[in-house]
Structure formats: C-alpha cells, structure tokens
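Hi everyone,

Forwarding the result from last night's run.
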Amino acid sequence: MKIRNLRTKLVLSSLPILLVGGLAYYMISSFLIIPGFQKIENDSSIEAANRAVDAINNRVSQLNLKASDWANWDDTYDFMKDHNKKYISSNLQNQTLANLGIDYMMFFDTNNKMLDMKHVNIDSPDLPSLPLEQGVKDLFGQDSLLLKHSSLTDDHAGIIDTPQGIIMITSRPILTSNVEGPSRGTLVFAQYLDASVQQELADLTHLKLTYLPANDSVVTKSVPAYTTHTSRGTQWVSQLSDTRARAYASILDIYGKPSIATQVDLARTISQQGVSSMNTSRLFTLLAGLLIVITTAILLNWLIVSRIIDLSRRVAGLKDVQDSSQTVVVSGNDELSCLGAAINDLLVRLHNTYDLRQANTTLEEKVTARTKELDDQLEQMKRTNDLMIDRELKMKELKQQNAKLRAENGDDSS
C-alpha cells in the first residue's frame, strides 16, 4: 500500500538515519573504543607484572647491600686470613642469619674453595644448621660466574632456579672496611624465594603474585592474548575469563637467561568498566537518537509539514476561479510563502484567462446571432428579388402574348 501521509513518510525516513547512525556508533565502539579499554587494561596488567619484577629486583638489591656490609668489613677480611674461630662463634649464629633474612652465608677463598658455610631455616632459627644442598653446591664450580670478579667493586646479584627452588643470591669480593684489597676471597649471601618471601612481596606491591620457573607448566601452557618485548624480557597477558586475567613477565637470571617468570592474577575491572560504560553509552545514544528524531519530526511538522497540509487544504478549497477574491494565505518569509504567492499569482492569471474566455464566448455568441440575423435578411431579400424577377418575366411574357394577340387580330395600334 502506498504511504500517502507526509508525517508518516517523514518519521519513516528518519528511522534509516537512526539505524545507520546507531550501527556506525556500535561498530566504532566495538572495534575502536572497547579495544582501547582492553589495551589500557593489558598495559596495566603488564605494568603490574613489571612491578612484581621490580619488587624481587629490589629485594635482591637489599640482599646485595647486606652482603656489602659483611664483605667490606675488617673482621671478615681478617677471618679470611687467619680463620679464627672467634669470628665464627660471634657472627655466624643461626639467629644472625635469621635477622639478616638469609638462608645461606658462604665464604670462598681466592682459589674458589669453600672455607665455611652457614645454612639455616630462617623461619625456625632455633633448629640446628642445615647441610649444603646439592643444587646450591652445583652453582660453585671452578668456572662459576659467582666466584669471578673483574675488579674490587665487581659484584654479582640476581636470581637462579635450582632443583630446591628459586633463590636470590649475591656474591662480592671480601675487602677491608675501606673497600681496599687485595681481595681475600668471595662472600655469598643466598635466600630462597619461598612462599613467605613471595607473600611479603605481594603485600608490598598489593598484588596477587607468584614467582615460577620459566619452564613451569603453568607458564608454558599460558595462552598470550597480549604480548610485549622490552629490554627487560618478555611480558604477556592471558585472559582466563571475562572477569579474570593473568599477567606474566620473564625475569633474567644471574646468567642473563629468562629462566624465571612472575605471575600476577588480576581482575579485569578496566575492560568490564569499559564494556559497562559503552553499553550505557549505547543506550543513552539510542535514546538521544530517538529524542532527536522525534524532536526533528515535531519541528519539521510544525515548520513545514503542517504548513504544506494547510496550503493543500486551502488550494483544495478553491471551488470557483470566477471569484477573484479567493486566495491562499501562507505566513512566513520562506519557500512555502513564496509557493503561496506563486499560487495566488496563478489564480489571478486563471481568473483573467476565465474572464477573457467568457468575453470571447459572449462575443462569439453575438457574432453568431448577428450572422444569423444577416443571413435571414439576405434570404428575405433574395426571396423578394426572386419574386420581382419572376414578376418581370411574367409581365414580359404577358406583353409578348398581348402583342402576339394583337398581331393576330390585325391591330396595329402598338
């Protein structure tokens, strides 16, 4: 069925505009804005993983600073020369290591031979000292990096993955309190990165973090949804669900290899907030679009459609063009008022044409009547003329007959 109502056409023509605009906004938000929120969230997750890396690096730096106090100490320097028992009894107590927060304290001479070692359970310092574990012992072969120092200020500090677990370790040359040599060996501090230390770092960074070997199945089976590569290593984010994500960052060990990884569990609050905000924005945009369409339709109806309809009714009400007083009235000073003026001008021309046609008709009727009158007169004259001619002919014939009769009677009086 053909749609004849102008208002209906106006509203229906606005709906495709609203639909296209809404679809365009949906596409923009889906492919530009929401991915922007996701990128911000991923970058924030990477930053959180790097904070966890910074936390352990800071812990290693603190361990190195503690080792510095012991390695650059005259008592330690003298101990490496005379191996006096008083130094051991006074300083290498279980509680000393517990107070330092370290699991191992090891002394190596200039030939890389271990002179003394202390291994304790720092959570239970009252228990007897523990033996050197094989995984730690394997770190100190003759070619061990930890026992090589290129200068008096050269030190090694970092983390290493061992069969017994991840340890933070530092080694420094043993010097005098004035940091003078020659070096009399190497002092090593080591601390396991156990659950208690990881919890301390988690509390410090306010993160739910875990430190794992890089070859751990949790790390190797993670599916990266976002990955970055920096000089610090590789960082990536795995999305566990719509509400949870897990960020990883590889950590270079003391040998410069990415053998450790930090794992940080995070809530996907940014993307959730982004999706929620965009859904709210889409709803308000739809409502705003509907409001704009309705408002525009009302304004167009008031400014244009109603005036067009009124003009149409006025034109339809013009029943008799003979009445020159009939005109249409359109207010305003726009195209519609010009149209009304054009219609009025057309009505004037129509009226003038009608008057001219009426005058022509009247004139034609008069001409026709006069022509008929003349034709009648002519016909009458013709009949009269015919009668006269006929009379003359008859009189002439009568005269001839009369003359003939006289001639026959011998009358010569003519």
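Strands lie at 104-108, 114-119, 156-162, 165-173, 186-192, 208-213, 226-230, 233-239, 244-252, 258-267.

Cheers,
N.
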